[in-house]
Amino acid sequence: MAATLEEMVRKGVNKLRAKADSMRRSWEGARARMTAGYEATPFGPTRKANYRAGLDGAVYRTDPDKWERNWPAKMRE
Q: Are 14 and 65 in contact (CB under 8 A)?
C-alpha cells in the first residue's frame, strides 16, 4: 500500500493512463445502450432528439494530467 499521498497519486495516474484506451472503448461501446435506455423514457420527442444529438456529438476524454492535479488537491481538503 502507498505510504504517502504522492505515491498514491503516482500509482493512480499510472493506472489511469494504462486504462484510458479501454475506458474510451467501453464508453463508445455503450452509446447504443445509452440511447436505447433514454428512448425508453416517457420524455417527448424533442427531449429525446436533444439527447441523441448531444450523445452523437459527445467525445469521451480522459485527462490523466488533470486528474493528477485535482485528485491530491481534493484529498488534502
A: no
What are the pLDDT digits (tens) for 10-43? 999 999 999 999 999 999 999 999 999 999 999 9
| Three-state SS sequence of the chain | CCCCHHHHHHHHHHHHHHHHHHHHHHHHHHHHHHHHHHHCCCCCHHHHHHHHHHHHHCCCCCCHHHHHHHHHHHHCC
* Model confidence pTM above 0.85: no
Please answer whether residues 75 and 7 qualify as being in contact, where contact means their C-beta atoms are separated by less than 8 angstroms: no
Cβ proximity of 55 and 34 under 8 Å = yes
Q: What would the 3-class secondary structure string for 34-52 be? A: HHHHHHCCCCCHHHHHHHH
